[in-house]
Amino acid sequence: GGALADCGFGAALIQKKEISSADISLALGWSLTIAVVIALIVSLMAPFLANQFGDDSLAWMFTVSAFLIIPQAMGNLSTNLLQRDLHMKSIQIIHVFAYTVCFGGVATTLAILGWGGWSLIIAYAVQTVFKVVATYSICRHTLRPRLKGDRALIHFGLKSLANDLTNWSMDNLDRFLIGKFWGLYSLGLYSVAFNLSKAPLGILIYTVQNIAFASAARLHGNLAAVRKGFQVVLAAMALATLPLFAIVAFESATVLHIVYGAKWIKAAPYMTALAASIPLISLGSITAAILRGTGAIGIELRVQVVTAVVFFSGLVILSGLSLAVAIWIVPAAYLVRLLLLLAVVRDRLELRVMDMLSPFRGAVV
After folding, report:
1. pLDDT at 110
2. What is the Cα–Cα distance from 89 to 336, expressed in whole angstroms?
3. What 8-state DSSP symbol labels residue 251?
């Protein structure tokens, strides 16, 4: 819902060279409209969604979570405007404080007090409201929504929306399929393994991806600068992910034992495959951000759709096998995505094969 509520207009505002208050009003109007519609749809579907997970008590959690999409949409707009002006330090401070204190602190406190799953939802509400207030206080903008305006902005926004929806589906629908085919116990092990694998670099990936997108949009037309920037950021991300997650993949049982204790050791086979996925996800995200920044949102969308088809069809086809085997479709799908994106960027930035390989030398060593 949060991905849909943005309507892709955040990316459209960042990518457009010059924006006006009318453009911001247009983005706000579409975001709020879609957010309200999605909130109503999800709340109406709450009993069905809860039933899919075999727990009717989840219906109220789905309903309350649905309406958090509306303030999230407003916060996304302010964050995107800050990102457009490359105020990354402010965004990072806000996001880190919101996650560690507003979400982590509140959730932990409520969990200790026995609030169960509601501790996560209430904490997310506190986190969302804080981000809305904090980002708007730094980047004050018009709060007058409108639905008519620049057609080019709407066109880019809708393509970006489709792209974000595809990304969201790959990040979330795998849990739905795993819960349906392999049960909630396996889903719990999978989720713990995936979250632990992604947690160390989640914020870094988010930040670097946003910087790469905003910078590429600003430098669009200066091919040499975009080319050099892409190689530098690719090398940095490869160095940050490949060695670390090679270790995590080989020592998944040890990592789980240290962090969560012996009772989670059964998640080790899942964590091995998921740890192998993280460098592929990271490098693909950076490459996609550069591609989007240069205006090739349509090409990026096609790559994402192909990847999603490989991913979900693979899970369905392998549903008769154990999850420890089927889970290897995750790194396979993200490898396909990375290779396709690199091939497109190579042509778009006029890079040689050696130019594409050289950023990985340090990481391999």
Report:
1. 94
2. 33
3. T
By CB atoms closer than 10 A (0-12, 13-18, 19+), residue 56 is: exposed
Token pair of 262 as six digits: 């012996």
Tokens, residue 230: 């892409």
Say if CB 156 and CB 300 are below 8 A apart.
Answer: no
Quick check: 321 and 244 in contact, CB under 8 A?
Answer: no
What is d(CA 122, CA 234) in angstroms, rounded to the nearest whole number? 37
Among 159, 29, 128, 141, smallest CA distance to 84 is for: 141
CA gap 336, 224 in Å, rounded: 27
pLDDT tens string 143-159 = 888 878 777 777 777 77
Q: Which residues of 337-348 are buried (b: 16+ CB within 10 A; e: fewer)?
A: bbebbbebbeeb
Of 303, 325, 304, residue with least CA distance to 315:
325
**Tokens matching residue 182:** 């392999």
Counts of helices then strands in the chain (DSSP H, E): 17, 0
Q: What is the pLDDT of residues 262-313, one digit of tens each?
A: 888 888 999 999 999 999 999 998 898 888 887 777 888 889 889 999 999 9
Nearest to 28 by CA among 186, 145, 198, 192: 145
C-alpha dist (Å) from residue 123 to 102, 111, 195, 205: 6, 10, 18, 23
Q: Which of 288, 26, 43 is nearest to 164 (CA)?
A: 288
- Supply the pLDDT for residue 3: 67
Of 131, 130, 123, which is closest to residue 65 (Cα–Cα)? 123
pLDDT at 153: 75
Question: Tokens 């905003």 label which residue?
Answer: 214
Query: Length of the chain in residues, anyone?
Result: 365
Is residue 17 classed as helix, strand or coil in its secondary structure?
coil
Question: Crossing angle of helices 268-293/223-250, nearest 10°?
Answer: 180
* pTM of the complete model: 0.73
Lookup: tokens for 55: 């727990």
Regions in the chain scoring below 50 on pLDDT: none
The neighbour count for residue 69, using CB atoms within 10 Å, is 23
